[in-house]
From TrEMBL:
PANTHER family: FAD-DEPENDENT PYRIDINE NUCLEOTIDE-DISULPHIDE OXIDOREDUCTASE, PTHR43755. It is a peripheral membrane protein. Residues 3-312 form the FAD/NAD(P)-binding domain. Belongs to the SQRD family. Keywords: FAD, Flavoprotein, Membrane, Nucleotide-binding, Oxidoreductase, Quinone. It comes from the Bacteria. This is Sulfide-quinone reductase. InterPro entries: FAD/NAD-bd_sf, FAD/NAD-binding_dom, SQRD. Catalyzes the oxidation of hydrogen sulfide, with the help of a quinone. Consecutive reaction cycles lead to the accumulation of a polysulfide product on the active site Cys residues; these products are released when they exceed a critical length, typically as cyclooctasulfur. GO terms for cellular component: membrane. GO terms for molecular function: nucleotide binding; quinone binding; sulfide:quinone oxidoreductase activity. Its EC number is 1.8.5.4. It is found in: Membrane.
Amino acid sequence: MANIVILGAGLGGVIMAYEIKDQLGLHDTVTVVTKDPIYHFVPSNPWVAVKWRTRESVQIDLAPVFERRGIDYKPVPATRLDPDSSTIELADGTKLSYDILIIATGPELAFDEIEGLGPEGYTASICHVDHASKAADAFEAFCKKPGPIVVGAVQGASCFGPAYEFTFILDTELRRRKIRDQVPMTFITPEPYVGHLGLDGVGDTKGLLEAEMRQHHIKFITNSRVARVEPGKIIVEEIADDGAVKKTSELPFGYSMLIPGFRGIAPLRGIDGLVNPRGFVLIDKHQRNPKYRNVFAVGVCVAIPPTGPTAVPCGVPKTGFMIESMVTATAHNIRQMLDGKQPTHQATWNAVCLADFGDSGVAFVAQPQLPPRNVNWSASGVWVHNAKIAFEKYFMRKMSRGESEPFYEKAMLDILGIGKLKKTEQSEVG
């Protein structure tokens, strides 16, 4: 009998619960611990922030789904992890032990690292549905008194796609309201160039996104570092390749949304051998921590080195399909461990992304996500917007049914040659 605990119930944690449950025996247990009892489809947050979606339409109550699947559920925040004793302390004063732990917490949003940043400061956020709902109210107030908009990401961010999406979604909504001509827009990013995405680009994302920016009259500043945010003003430093400040600008705004830097959650930070200095979980090629061999990690909480040096720190994004590939590899590896074997499965870390721009969009496929790649493709068009809507509906239905990968999804991915597991000699033998 194995006692498996999953810490976190975002995209990675929920799918992990479904997949590992399918791999286990009758007497094995799966327990999910999370501070959020309701699952929210994070890719829809940019739509929530302009009221194209309500928060209720992009959320799922996990309790009945987990109960139906036979998964134990504790909607209580974790306060401390002790990997030496294989226990987790919870906010209600209880302690939970595990045989195998899967960390799928996602990140902590580091708004506090920049003065004035975030929903408690002067800028909006779309990283959580609570933030997106608050951002929607702020946008409604802004539209009654239009002015400059500044959108983008700050130093240390590792999720650039939503910043681009929200920029163009705002542009679309402003045009629909016939007030776009009253709103100068500026996009700021720590990326060395527009379309870098923390991945050194995918296909021609640089050309595609720069062209979209120019076509929509959106100015952009790259290699930017936000010094601080004041009421109605962002102080931005442009950084040269040698790290020197080559220009400081004061950008006025009536509305701003900036993606913050990410770090590991507090209960994990500072545990030697488990996490890096930023609090992200260290893993080997089998998603397993090198020091604590009964601990695995999937999703945004995983430590991934940057693709290369940049003048301003840029993290590597963990996209949805990449996370799903981590989940599948982890589930298979844990099954092998329970059978007394060594883990052999490796995630492909392939990336398939649909970035909606309101009435068009950009799609890219990177196999694997980090270069050099076997497939390096990007394209744009109205079809991306329609595909994103269809995917939202499909994914929400899949989550509410307690499914990870229905057979027809797997069949389609096989046809497209987009796999979740690497084909290695070891895994084929295993």
